[in-house]
């Protein structure tokens, strides 16, 4: 169960990370769309798990590796945006949010 503070930081980081990634969308995924679906911070606010939804992508792992390689730059830009609101900018770990793929798979199984 997340605390009220964690929930506020989660939503702040999700909104700001979405804008940061939108600024680099052409470099990260040309012709595609990257969406920040969720952010979960640790109780000490030192680590943030950022879940990304990628569309349309064949090789999601390659795009995720590209995002991870730019992680320090993205964290720096995030720090400039939230520097007045958070004392420490959390470390960012990026993950693929495959919940939409699972929903589609379940839909296909139910249609049979």
Give a short summary of the structure.
It is globular, with a radius of gyration of 15 Å. With 112 residues, it is an alpha+beta fold.
List unreliable stretches of 5+ residues: none
CATH fold-level topology: GMP Synthetase, Chain A, domain 3
Radius of gyration: 15 Å
The name of the CATH superfamily reads K homology (KH) domain
Helix content: 40-55%
Largest sheet: 3 strands, mixed
Q: What structural category arises from helix and sheet content?
A: alpha+beta
Distance between the termini: 37 Å
Strand order of the largest sheet: 1-2-3
Q: Can you tell me the number of structural domains? A: 1
Task: Write the element-wise H/E pattern from the N-terminal end onward.
Answer: HHEEHHEH
**What's the total number of strands?**
3
* Rounded mean pLDDT score: 91
3D architecture notes:
The chain is α+β, with helices and mostly antiparallel strands. It has one domain (4-111): K homology (KH) domain (GMP Synthetase, Chain A, domain 3), CATH 3.30.300. Helix content is 53%, strand content 21%. The chain contains five helices and three strands. The chain has helices at 4-23, 25-28, 60-69, 71-82, 99-111, and strands spanning 33-41, 47-55, 91-96. A three-stranded mixed β-sheet has the order 1-2-3. A hairpin with a 5-residue loop joins strand 1 and strand 2 (47-55). Helix 1 (4-23) packs across helix 4. The longest helix is centred in the first third of the chain and has 20 residues, at 4-23. The chain is globular and about 50 Å long.
């Amino acid at each position: 169960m997340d605390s009220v503070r964690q929930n506020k930081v989660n939503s702040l980081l999700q909104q700001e990370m979405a804008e940061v990634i939108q600024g680099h969308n052409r470099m990260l995924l040309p012709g595609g769309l990257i969406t920040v679906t969720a952010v979960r911070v640790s109780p000490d606010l030192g680590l943030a798990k950022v879940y990304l939804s990628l569309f349309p992508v064949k090789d999601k792992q390659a795009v995720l590796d590209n995002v991870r390689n730019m992680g320090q730059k993205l964290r720096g830009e995030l720090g400039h945006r939230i520097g007045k609101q958070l004392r420490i900018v959390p470390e960012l770990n990026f993950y693929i949010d495959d919940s939409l793929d699972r929903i589609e798979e379940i839909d296909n199984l139910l249609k049979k």
